[in-house]
Every structure is written in C-alpha cells, then in structure tokens.
Amino acid sequence: MGSVFGKRYDPTEDAEEFRVLKAIVKEGFELLGVFNWSDYLPWLSYFYDPSRIVAHCEALVPRVRKLVKAIIEQHQLKNQHENTISDNADFVDVLLSLDGDEKLNEDDMIAVLWEMIFRGTDTVALLTEWVMAELVLHPEVQAKLRQELKAVVEDRGVVDADMPRLSYLQAVVKEVLRLHPPGPLLSWARLSTEDVCLSNGMVYPRKHNSHGEYVGYYS
User: Fold this and answer.
1) Coil/strand/helix, residue 192
2) Which UniProt key words apply to this protein (predicted)?
C-alpha cells in the first residue's frame, strides 16, 4: 500500500482502518471466486442469482467508496499547499496532480485506486515469493543484488527516488515477471513478430512466446 496510498499499515497502530481494508479485500476475492452462472449465461443475471453475488457487490461498493474517499481527502488536505509532486509522491498524489483532459473525477479515481488495491494484492505477493525463490536458487544473482542495494540505499529503506539507480533490481524483477507472470494466461498474446538480436549475442526467435524459460541461441 506504500506506493499507492503512501502508507504502510501497522495492525497495531492502524487497527481499525487495517481491519476494514483487510475485510473488504477478503470479501472481494471471495466474490471473485464464487461460481456464477451469469459468467457463462449473462442473461441469467436478470432473474437467477442463487449466491446473491449482485447483492453482495452492491453492499460492498459503499464500503469501498467510504474507505478510498477518506484516503483521497487526506491527500488533498496534505497537498493543498504544494504545487509540485515530490520524489516520494504516491499513486494518489499522481492522480490528484492530473490536469485538463487527463483529470479524473471522484468516481473514476475511486475505481482506479480500488483496482490498484484489489488487483495489486495477490499479484505483488506472488511476485515477491517468486523473487525470493529465484534468489535462493541463484546465489550469484542474490550477491550482486545485495551489493547494489548496499551501495545505493545502505542501511535505510528503499524509496521511489532510488529506483533509477537500482538498475539490477529492476532487471531482477522484470526477469521474474517474465518467468513467472502473475497472470500467465495474458502472456499467450506476447509473441515475437520477428527475430530479435539481444546485446549479449542471443537471438529471440520469431513467433516465440515470451512466457516460460528463455529459449535462444547464439547468432
């Protein structure tokens, strides 16, 4: 939640807000996993909803709006005297800074932020697990990454402003995303349209899928 809301929830200090957020996300995932005939026969939704999915969703929406709207208002209050975005700005700050045709109304902003919360929960958790697993399997990569982090951030935590200098960390994350995409079914559309020559002499073959282990050869 740090990059989205600029806040990391502590169950001891933010007990009530953390409880509400956790309950909303949990309920959202449960609704997503419930078998629904309307997913296959949309016309059934008008008169057949045995799991009361529509009713549960309608009850969930006001709770989501209340939570996210409060967070937006906190950011508006914080930013009312600032004209520029700081290096440590979060996603809410970025959305609030949009002007002109790009500016979002409140409903759209709430929808975008909720999508970031809901879709970014399990995907980030899965990515983190795979990163740790790959680092255990590749100690040489782990050592190089540790060296970069020590040189750039030393003993403090990583902030957004550090990312341009953490090129190896970005490469590790991107490689893990390539090998273990959180949404693997989406990767089937990622086919190379032509042979791609990489800087290390490898060639990525035409009509090859980017998902899975790297398949290439030296030119």
Assistant:
1) coil
2) Heme, Iron, Metal-binding, Monooxygenase, Oxidoreductase
pLDDT, one tens digit per residue, over 33-57 is 888 888 788 887 777 787 788 888 8
What's the CA gap between 50 and 173, in Å, rounded? 42
Contacts of 11 (CB under 8 A, 6+ apart): 18
Please, are residues 48 and 19 in contact by the beta-carbon 8 Å criterion? no
How many helices (H) and strands (E) the chain has is answered by 7, 3
The amino acid occupying position 73 is E
Instruction: State both tokens at 45.
Output: 């939704």
pTM for this predicted structure: 0.57
- Neighbouring residues of 136: CB distance < 8 A, sequence distance ≥ 6: 142
Got the DSSP string for the chain? -HHHHS----TTTSHHHHHHHHHHHHHHHHHHHS--GGGT-GGGGGT--TT-HHHHHHHHHHHHHHHHHHHHHHHHHHHTT--S--TT--HHHHHHH--GGG---HHHHHHHHHHHHHHHHHHHHHHHHHHHHHHHH-HHHHHHHHHHHHHHTTTS---GGGGGG-HHHHHHHHHHHHHS-SSGGGGGG-B-SS-EE-TTSEEEPTT-BSSSS---EE-
